[in-house]
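Entry 14. Structure prediction run on the chain below.
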Amino acid sequence: MHTRALSLAAILATPTHAQVPEGWYAISGFETSGGASPGGVWVASPRTNAPATRVTGVPGILINGLGANWIEITDDGSGLLCADAPTTVGDPINLWHLTLSGLNVVSAQPVQVATSLPSSPLAGLGAVSATENLAGNVFAFALSATADPVPALAGERIGLFDLTSGSLTPIAFVGPPLFGTWNAITVSNDFSAIYAAQVNGSSTTQIWRIPIDGSPASSVASPGSIVSSLAFESDGTLTYASFDELGRIDLSTGTVTPILSGFSNGHVIESATSSIASVSGSASGYEVRLLTPQGTVSNIATAPAGGWGILSGIDFREPIETYGSTSFGSNVYSWNITPNPGGLPTVGNPNFGITVESTPGTPTASAIWLSLASTNLPALGVTILVDPGANFLTSIPVPPSTSSTLPLALTPNIAGTTFYAQSIHLDGGGLATSNGLRFTVVDP
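Output returned:
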C-alpha cells in the first residue's frame, strides 16, 4: 500500500447541512404505558452520548397512542419514513413520509398499506413490523399477522414501497403455510432477496430467504428468542437483534452466534466502521449502544428532556459512500470503504483517509482528484465524476500500486463540507477511472 498525505485545513468551504446530517442517527419510539414518556422521532449526533434531539412537527399519531414504529432515512437525508401503530380495530395502517426542513417536519404524507384486524396474543393489533431501504428510495416492509393488506398487495404481507412513484408492489412468499407473524426484515447486499424473521409465540423465530423474483422461499436459521431486526454486514454476514441479544448468522451453515447480551429492539450497521448501533432497553430505560468490531460497547445517545418511550427503530446516514460507475481498462479500480480503513470522516480523526484498490494488476501511473462538486462527464474514453471546473480542488499523484491511500487532515473549519473524489489511472496505454466517492466531514 502506498500513501500520500494531504491537508484540507486551508480549504475553506461553506458547509451545507442536510436535514438529517451525514453521520447522524435517526431513532423512533413508542409511547410508554400510561403516557409517562412520549413516542416520536429523534436524531442523535455521533458518539457524543448527549441527549437526542426531538424532530418537531411530527403528526400526533406518531407521538401519542402508541407512537412511531421503525424508521428509515431517505437517500438524500431530506426525509424520514416510519410507520404508525393502530390502537383500534379497523384503523388504517400507514407508512409515513416525513419531509424535513432542518429538524422540523414540513410535510407528512401517509400511505395506507393495511387495515388493523382484531388483536391476538401473537401479533397484537395489526402493524408494519419492519422496513428497510433497498436503494433509490425503494423500501421493503413487512406486515404483522393481524394486518389486512390493501388490495395493491394482493394478500401478501411483504411488499415494496417506491417513495418516488408512490406505488406498492407485493413480494410473494412461496413456501409452506406461515405459522407466525413477520417481525423483522432486511435485504441482501445484492438486492436479490429479502430476509424476514417470522415469530411464533414468545420464544421461536424462523428466518426466511424470500427471493424478490418470486422463487420459492427457504429457511436459513432459527435463533432462540424473538428477533426484532435484521441487517447485513458488508461481507454478507446476517446480523440480528433480539429480546435477548445481538448476534450473527452464518448463512452457509445456519449457525447462530450471540455477540452481545441484552434486549435490543432494533439495530443498524455502520458500513465505514463495521460497528453496530442498537436501541436497547434495561431496567433503567432505553439507550443507544455502539458495539465496535473490537468488542467495545459505549452509549452514543441519551434520552432528551421529557424522556423517550420504548425505542422501536434506528437508522444511520452514512457520511461516506460511492456513486457512479467505474471506467476500467485492464484493471478495475474501486474504493475500499466497507469498512473504510481510516474509519469515519470525523473532525480530529488522525487516521482518516480514502483508499482506492486495483484488481488484478497495477496501473502505470495514478492520481486522486478532489472536488467540491460532482458531475457526469464523458471524456477521453472515461466518465469524469468530479467537477473539473471552479469547484475542483486538487489532483494528487499516488505511486503505482494495487492499493493507494490518501490521508486527509480533517479540521473543525470544514465540518459539514462534502468532498467528491475519483481516481484516474494510466492503464494499458489508455485511461481508466474509479467510481466516485462522496464523503462529508462530521463533528465528533
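Confidence is low (pLDDT under 50) at residues 1-5, 9-17.
Filed with the rest of this week's runs.
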